[in-house]
Amino acid sequence: MPAKSYKMGPGTLTVGEVGSPDGIDISCQVTKGVLKPSKDAEDDLNVLCGDVIPGEVTYTWVLEATVAQDLSADGINLWALANMGKQFPFKFVPNTELKTGFSGTLTVDPINIGGDVKTKPTSDLEWSLVGQPVVIPPAP
């Protein structure tokens, strides 16, 4: 099989129902976006007869992103502050041309405000997913 890859962007990242008071499209604020899994594996249990009882494996997911801060009334900073602790559906499409995306539910945490003087500040966010993301396959 030949090597394959894709280019990140242009894409989309929306949280909640866009157009509603609770929804936000942060696609134009994102400078980096990653759905990141973590694995937690218990140790296997060796038993006298020589068998091994496998440890349980649990996966958790987070949405990590770096965003350009926006302190406007409908910007990401104030939206995250107003909605901290709430769960929202999200949709992440790394490259709209490829049409494959990911959806699920995440929990919003507030993000940093401010940064270095005479710069355009960014914030790193890490929002936990409820369960795992679902693949949105490309339309036929």
Helix/strand order, N-terminal first: EEEEEEHEEE
Strand order in the sheet with the most strands: 2-1-7-8-9-6-3
Helix content: under 10%
Strand content: over 45%
Helix segment tally: 1
What would you call the quaternary organization?
Answer: single chain
> How many angstroms does the end-to-end distance come to?
23 Å
Total number of beta strands: 9
Taking pLDDT < 50 over at least 5 consecutive residues as the criterion, the unreliable ranges are none
Major beta sheet, specifics?
A: 7 strands, antiparallel
Q: What is the average per-residue confidence, as pLDDT, rounded to a whole number?
A: 95
Description:
- This protein is mainly β.
- Helices cover 5% and strands 45% of the residues.
- It is built from one helix and nine strands.
- The chain has one helix at residues 76-82, and strands at residues 12-15, 24-25, 30-41, 45-46, 52-53, 57-68, 87-93, 101-107, 122-136.
- A seven-stranded antiparallel sheet has the order 2-1-7-8-9-6-3, with no helix packed on it. A two-stranded antiparallel ribbon has the order 4-5.
- The protein is globular, with a radius of gyration of 19 Å.
- The mean pLDDT is 95.
